[in-house]
Design brief:
The complex is a heterodimer of chains A (about 350) and B (about 260). Chain A is of the alpha/beta class and about 350 residues long. Chain A contains twelve helices and 15 strands. In chain A, the strands form three sheets. In chain A, strands 3-2-4-5-7-6-13 form a seven-stranded mixed beta sheet, sandwiched between helices. Chain A has a five-stranded mixed beta sheet with strand order 10-12-11-14-15, with helices on both faces. A two-stranded antiparallel ribbon of chain A has the order 1-8. The model of chain B has no long low-confidence stretch (mean pLDDT about 95). The chains are: A alpha/beta (about 350), B alpha/beta (about 260). β9 of chain A pairs parallel with β2 of chain B.
Amino acid sequence: MGELRLMKGNEALAEAAIRAGMDAYFGYPITPQSEVLEYLTREAWLRTKASILQAESEVASINMLYGAGGAGGRVMTSSSSPGISLMQEGISYIAGAEIPCLIVNVNRGGPGLGTIQPSQGDYFQSVKGGGHGDYRLIVLAPATVQEMADFVLEGFELAEKYRNPVLILTDGALGQMMEKVELRDQVDRAARKIPGWATTGKTPDRAANVLTSLFIQPEEMEQVNLRLQEKYKVIEQNEIRYQTIQVEDADMVLVAYGLSARISRKAMEICRAHGMKVGVIRPISLWPYPSQVITDAAQHAKAFLAVELNAGQMVEDVRLAVNGRCPVEHYGRMGGIIPSPEEIVTVIEKLYSQVS
Amino acid sequence: MDNPKIDIDLDHEELDVVCERPDTLKDARMHYCPGCGHGVAHRIIMEAVAELGIQDKTIGVAPVGCSVFAYHYMNIDMQEAAHGRATAVATGIKHILPDHYVFTYQGDGDLAAIGTAETIHTVNRGENLLIVFINNAIYGMTGGQMAPTTLFGQKTSTSPYGRQREFNGNPLKITELLAQLPGAFYVTRQAVNNPNAVRKAKKAIINGFKYQELKRGTSFVEIVSNCPTNWGLPPVKANEWLVENMLPYYPLGDIKVPSKEDLQP
């Protein structure tokens, strides 16, 4: 059993990054995730000699990440919604140059400067692109402080396995809440093998390594895109993560991720206590998306309800997976408002009465 | 008239090789326009790497602009950066490989317009990098638009009546600006318009690499260059225009040099 601590989500994530053998972090303060940078500047250099740099902007941060990841480092940045928007240029380049790195978005309300309260309004931006071009991020959505920590090492390893950026999409509530967390043992930074494609200096035994996303000949650019799409197919085959709770006999299935999934689970328990057959599907990887488990549940379910802290974003993916087999509704609050389980139950009851 | 016939013995044993392509330059035909300074600038940087024997510890960052394909010519590990972000990318590399030699190669649009913030903060932090700044007072790759460094009165496709203060603001002396920053260790302005200038520019590049060993700040080498195509001048005339117009506003020479104490290991 690892070390147990009571920690904030942001701090658990930062502690996990140190223990994962992170080599460098580049970031810029923004609420509600500034504790990540603060924690790392306090702890990381002293303990592992990891390089922590407060950049002049999110634009600089993501490009530092590009350089450091390209040089073979295990590297991370974190930000919140407006900051992630600034990073989109760099994220597209990183995906194009296939540089592994971990990006954390502690989602706050938008659009624009918005609010510092939690939101899931960045779903589209996270899983449908955000930057320019055809690319995908592997997107992991924690629902507990424990997962805020666990998904860090998992994210680094996925990024390095596929040479693809990984995004942890969480929110201001999970970043700020305190829970018990079991921490893994320290990974030895020096023990990690530096990949052969990294720019570490050309030696006589190999050609120069070049990291670029520029392929000016259209035929070559198409081939690069086709290869990327093949990689994304492999990721879709191997890396789908989800949780199902009492879906087998459910007449009605809630689909929710992250903070919304916690609330939905409680709403489900209240409904079950009142005899309503409600289940929950919780996508953990938002891309690749667990479409098949939703399609399978649609064989017997009479209705789906996507619960999100937004105006209805993931619900589009639920509808694609259900493909017209039964109604798919959405319930969401915005602006940093977190719905209560009872509020969700009211919505479920209304929908349930219509389909049963 | 027939061309004069010259009997050349290519295998003549008494010929001495006095200059050849260093291994740090790939055997590739460059895409630059005739008379452009990029080819010379590439060559002196790679000669410096070869002469210092640091090919296996050098990482370059290529810009966006005419020299976006620098990695097609430089036989070293390189990363291509987004427009203006080269010094941030180089910072990231240096934080992973602090004992390696890292340099950026950037034009005026890249470094002095879209990347001004990254440039200033990289130098102000005193990152142990070499920044090579090619200033030809115009945007080359996109077809001759006004640059921050475009001179007063200079015609470009976006200053068709010549740059005017009231419409276009002032030509930016970014190098003098950067020299004021405490993180700047060595700041110099050189050129590649004649052999003597090329020799001095190469010496500055060598200094910029060697100073990284001291870990005391950023080296910044501006190279005043030309753009015959977008200036609308043949190569020789372009170099004459450079001397007559650019050098009075961008005078050559060292702007900030380390003291003897600074150079102590």
